[in-house]
Structure formats: C-alpha cells, structure tokens
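User: What would this chain look like folded?
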Amino acid sequence: MATPHLHSGEVSNLLVPEGQLLAVSAHALFKDEHLEVIRMNLAQGKSLPSHHVHGPLTIQCLSGEVQVELQAGTKTMRAGDLLYLAAGLPHAVLAISNTSFLVTIVLLKAVA
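Assistant: Here's the prediction, encoded as structure tokens.
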C-alpha cells in the first residue's frame, strides 16, 4: 500500500529509527505542479545509477553517509549536509553506510 502524500499544512517527522530505516527505500512526501520532495533510504553499498532531472535539486543527508558522484568529482555527505545541483546535472549516489536523505526537485518542463 502506498504511503499518502502530505497535505498542505501537515507536519511529517523525517527522522526514522535505525531499525526501520530500510523498511521503505523511497517515499514521495509530496508532489505538486512545481515541487517534489522524496525521502530516500539506501542500505550500505547500494547505489542509484547516473541520472539527471530537468529542474534544480537539493540533496540533504539526514543520517548515515552517502557519496554523490558528479562530473566534477565525488562529494561525501554526512548527516546535516546539503548539496545543491543545477538543472540537468548528471549525478549518481552510493550509500557508504545505511543512509537516509531528502531530495527536493523543482519540476520544470523538458525543453524539446
């Protein structure tokens, strides 16, 4: 069963107890016409292959340690770190330890 999206004005706690961290790999907290926020949980050693999105995005590490591979090099993120990526920038993600991070994407239409 899918977890419902947040409604305007609703509060959600982003912290997940360690024992429940990997129960759900991804949860879209909300999505509207211009913004999507997703909590991602990755087990140590798991990765997301290189990809890009049409709008700018941020990645905020909530717990654990994660590496983000960019064309300009690899960035290591730990709890509390925030990374901004410009629109269209290819990136891959590797969990150094069990990790939870928040992805915020500005939704822009693809230019043909």
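DSSP finds no helices and nine strands in the chain. If you want, I can go into more detail on any region.
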